[in-house]
Design goal:
16 helices; eleven-stranded mixed β-sheet; single chain; 13 strands; alpha/beta; two-stranded antiparallel sheet; globular; 38% helix; Amidase signature (AS) enzymes
């Protein structure tokens, strides 16, 4: 086995013990990106000399020598972020973003920039100025968005970990589509400095994408600038909502998630409680209104009329639609946010986590990202947001964990959500679920990652 195929934490331990040479690992990583990336278009830019400079200056932190990819949503000292778009309403510039500093200070090496869905406005990853990213499980399928490249890069084992961003599910969707574990942190807890919308956003967070929960814990600790200590999920009280998020899903997804919930209950000696959470559909709309309203910063009619012609027609339309949002709708969205936070606070007195499928169907085709559900045919974006937006609207943490393979041997995932600040509990629960299924799903590899490994 190549060192490149080790888990992030095993690789960090091997480097610290002198069993793996960090400089050789960096060169092997760059070689593997060159070898495997053309099939999936996950990494849109590498900068070998900058990466070597990072390694030469890296402190002996917990991630010393670990190669990582950062989403095109974050600036680097030598490169401005592009958000997967031909042009942004407001210009960006190179800089030391929070996630970059977090990785640097932990000793990690940024080896590339990850592709992303144009302007972060989709859950599929099939639209980008760089061309669509592709799913390592099936390169004709969507890898999820908007953190498409970071997820595809980890799933293809180009790198052991990556940094994404989640505004309406953008870490959890690609984690689910690519068979990874992805953590959407509690709002305000992870590094955000330097993000284009940091001064105005109340939804977006940075988050780790890794093969499993323990790797997410290690990478997340760097993003949080605090150790995410492992605890005990014993006696876990699991809340089950009977709503479209759990009922209007493909049968194979529903069955896999129900089996995973039962396995988690048994593993933790816990219990499953059916709970009610009213107005989920309205909460989704409130989150969509909020992120669109917050995106108005810097928008003027003149700028809208001068949009770059290579920006997709959908995003050109979205940009203009935002100017029509009534202030009254934004006020109502804030009222609903308050209401949902109060309801969740009450629910989390009776349960520890809420569980439902991360995505209602497996990854759809890139050329036509539509999904078939019991209620009919939907766009993937329309169906996916139903289960993701609540966590962003209210700020609570959420995690996506792989729990099966569906049709076409494509990943299925379960989402767990917990009370504000209980990110560690979600990681504990995810690790318990891994134990319950003998780590079968976190160790399952897509075809591209089973290719002959590049030796270090």
């Amino acid at each position: 086995m190549s060192a490149l195929d080790l888990s992030l934490r095993a690789l960090a331990a091997a480097i610290a013990a002198g069993e793996v040479d960090a400089a050789e690992l960096l060169e092997a990583t760059l070689a593997r990106i060159e070898e495997r990336n053309p099939a999936i278009n996950a990494v849109v830019e590498t900068f070998p000399e900058r990466s070597r400079e990072m390694l030469a200056e890296a402190p002996r932190g917990p991630l010393y020598g670990i190669p990582v990819v950062i989403k095109d949503e974050w600036p680097l000292p030598w490169r401005a972020q592009r958000f997967g778009a031909a042009e942004l309403i407001e210009p960006t510039a190179p800089g030391e973003s929070g996630p970059y500093r977090a990785m640097r200070d932990a000793g990690a090496i940024v080896v590339g920039v990850g592709n992303m869905h144009e302007l972060g406005s989709g859950s599929t990853g099939n639209v980008s100025v760089y061309g669509a990213a592709r799913n390592p499980w099936d390169i004709e399928r969507c890898p999820g968005g908007s953190s498409s490249g970071p997820a595809a890069a980890v799933a293809a084992r180009l790198v052991p970990g990556a940094v994404g961003a989640d505004g309406l599910g953008s870490v959890r969707f690609p984690a689910a589509y690519c068979g990874l574990t992805g953590l959407k942190p509690t709002f305000g807890r992870s590094a955000m400095a330097g993000h284009h919308m940091e001064p105005v956003t109340t939804l977006i967070v940075s988050g780790p994408l890794c093969a499993d929960a323990a790797d997410c814990r290690l990478l997340g600790s760097a993003l949080f600038d605090e150790e995410l200590r492992a605890g005990d999920a014993a006696g876990l009280r699991i809340g089950l909502v009977r709503d479209v998020v759990s009922e209007d899903v493909a049968p194979e997804v529903g069955e896999a998630c129900e089996a995973a919930i039962e396995a988690l209950r048994v593993e933790t000696g816990g219990e499953v409680r059916e709970i009610e959470l009213a107005d989920l559909e309205a909460a989704n709309l409130a989150a969509i209104l909020t992120i669109n309203g917050e995106s108005l910063s810097g928008v003027t009619p003149q700028r809208l009329n001068e949009l770059h012609p290579e920006i997709s027609p959908i995003n050109r339309g979205f940009a203009k639609y935002r100017m029509l949002l009534p202030a009254a709708a934004m006020v109502q969205a804030e009222r609903l946010r308050t209401l949902m936070r109060r309801r969740l606070a009450a629910l989390f007195e009776d349960v520890d986590v809420i569980a439902w499928p991360t995505i209602p169907a497996v990854a759809p085709p890139l050329e036509s990202p539509m999904v078939e559900l019991p209620s009919g045919t939907h766009t993937a974006d329309q169906a996916n947001v139903r289960g993701a937006a609540l966590a962003n609207l209210t700020g609570i943490p959420a995690i996506s964990v792989p729990v099966g393979l569906g049709s076409g041997r494509l990943p299925i995932a379960l989402q767990l959500q917990a009370a504000w600040g209980r990110d560690e509990l979600l990681l504990d629960a995810a690790e318990a679920l891994e134990r319950a299924n003998d780590r079968h799903w976190v160790e399952s590899l897509p075809p591209l990652a089973q290719a002959e490994p590049t030796e270090t």
